[in-house]
Amino acid sequence: MNDMTDISEGQDEAVYRIGDLADEFGVTLRTLRFYEDKGLLKPTRAGVTRLFTKRDRARLKLILLGKRVGFSLTEVKRMIDLYDPRGKNDAQLKVALSKGEAQMRVLEEQRASINTAIEELERTISVVRDMLNEPE
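Now predict its structure.
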């Protein structure tokens, strides 16, 4: 099956079935249904088939990016919901910048902690190796 499937006659916009998006983004069907339940994605339906638009696909891409960098789904939803297709989206961009800068600080602190833990573990491993090589 193609990524884009024209489901209904006369429909100009490409639509994606749930399985298409799941395969493309490496997520489960359950994940997509969960995002739908949380109001992050808003597919239409043709019978029991969920039909996602290009807008839904773009939203999914942003959701997954947000999760990858450590944002909660609530934060992702708030940022996405600020989008105005008719505007310059200054409010959305300012919120995204502010949250992005704050998350960058959190990740940098986590990296520093991880680097410290790695250094300590390397020292411990070295000491243990030396102890094992010592004659009794």
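Helices lie at 18-25, 29-37, 54-68, 73-81, 90-133.
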